[in-house]
Amino acid sequence: MNEKQQTISKSVSVTGVGLHTGVVATMTFVPAPANHGYKFQRIDLPDQPIVDADVDNVVDLSRGTTIEQNGARIHTVEHTLAALVGLQIDNVLIQLDGPEPPIMDGSSIKFVDALLDAGIEEQNAYRNYFEVPEYVHYMNKETDTELVALPLSDYRLTVMVDYNSTVISSQHASLNDITLFKDDIAECRTFVFLHELEALYRQNLIKGGDLTNAIVIVDREVRDGELDHLSQLLSKPKVSVNKSKGILNNVDLHYPNEMARHKLLDLIGDLALVGRPIKAQILAARPGHAANVALAKKIKKLIKSGKGDIPQYDPHKAPVFDINQIGQLLAHRYPFQMIDKIIALDENSVVGVKNVTINEQFFLGHFPGNPVMPGVLQLEAMAQTGGILVLTSVPDPDNYWPYLIGIDACRFRRNVFPGDTVIFKCEFTSPMKRGIVKMSGRGYVAGQLVCEADMIASLVKKK
């Protein structure tokens, strides 16, 4: 999985009919800056409102996932979002001149092709992964649906579907490497059972559906004259099925388990609404949009709780700044040069590493015989980590001193001992104004929170 965020190199558009609204629309993918995420924009409405691709904005799950914000509604977003996740594209503005993305052929492949044609561009910011820290479970006994997310330092998905149908047997599909999305998942099309068609039309859905953008599964005997009725319903001159049961118009499947693969595609798109790239093992039995979104809400609740949002330190990876580069940015020297490495840095956050050893000078007098790192020095190390973030936010850091001018909500949760490696993460909580910036900081040892504080820093120009 990519370490850096990505956007597209240029704008690119696709045009087609919406599956459920039946409205023809043009959808344009537009490059966006780091940490922008996925946002839709209804350019056909007054003031061109923005709709964040966020699970909190889901308002309808009738045969697709619909989001709404600022008085604007976007229908059936899952295929579009799946294409972006599958290509590991993080930041895009998706402009629409209608209420629903084009259904195209019922899969994500046309979006994937368009995005690849636009080109993918790496950005100078790290991906803000959320690593699921614990077992997350959703179950609906009425529909016999069950989804779980398990801790994993990767993103893998497995789906099982079972419709008790003689046409579709129980099917499984897996994606163990997100880079295989284009080849293994993207072209798998949406599907519907013949017995569902009339009901969907009565519900004012699939107005744009036809045999070019959905697989229709004939799961029962077709009565005399029914095919003529279906041809009128689907606006086709003729529909047929060679057998009493099968696929309407005898459409060839891309894969024997194309239905399970499409359900996996939907799952990827719906989980994109968590708002951050995920690291987890996802297992889904008989998933649907309602269950997918329910799991996404549980994961987002974990994010809000702070669980799992712990920076990971891999000593095998080259740091962003080593000790010498840190010394070029910060004026601190022995015995007050507290940070050994910077391992992550983007426009809004920084992660630093402090290796605590018994040779630290302060252990000579701080609790002799029971060496514990002083809390004020933990705070100093956190502030120096934040100082790196503040200095790198200006084009000429050599001309400034970063000063800590305010501390609030400071807590020391656990003792820090010699031999510990403390991972500090600092994030901007407000934009810099007149050289003043607010940050939140946390320190972790072995995944456990040891200290936290809100800080205010000031950049003062050197005389």
Automatic annotation (TrEMBL):
Gene Ontology cellular component list: cytoplasm; membrane
Residue numbers binding Zn(2+): H79, H262, D266
GO MF annotations, alphabetized: (3R)-hydroxyacyl-[acyl-carrier-protein] dehydratase activity; metal ion binding; UDP-3-O-acyl-N-acetylglucosamine deacetylase activity
GO biological process, any: fatty acid biosynthetic process
Protein origin, superkingdom: Bacteria
Keyword Zinc: yes
Cofactor: Zn(2+)
Location relative to the cell: Cytoplasm
Function: Catalyzes the hydrolysis of UDP-3-O-myristoyl-N-acetylglucosamine to form UDP-3-O-myristoylglucosamine and acetate, the committed step in lipid A biosynthesis. Involved in unsaturated fatty acids biosynthesis. Catalyzes the dehydration of short chain beta-hydroxyacyl-ACPs and long chain saturated and unsaturated beta-hydroxyacyl-ACPs.
Family of the protein in this entry: In the N-terminal section; belongs to the LpxC family. Belongs to the thioester dehydratase family. FabZ subfamily.
Entry protein name: Multifunctional fusion protein
Species this chain originates from: Dyadobacter fanqingshengii
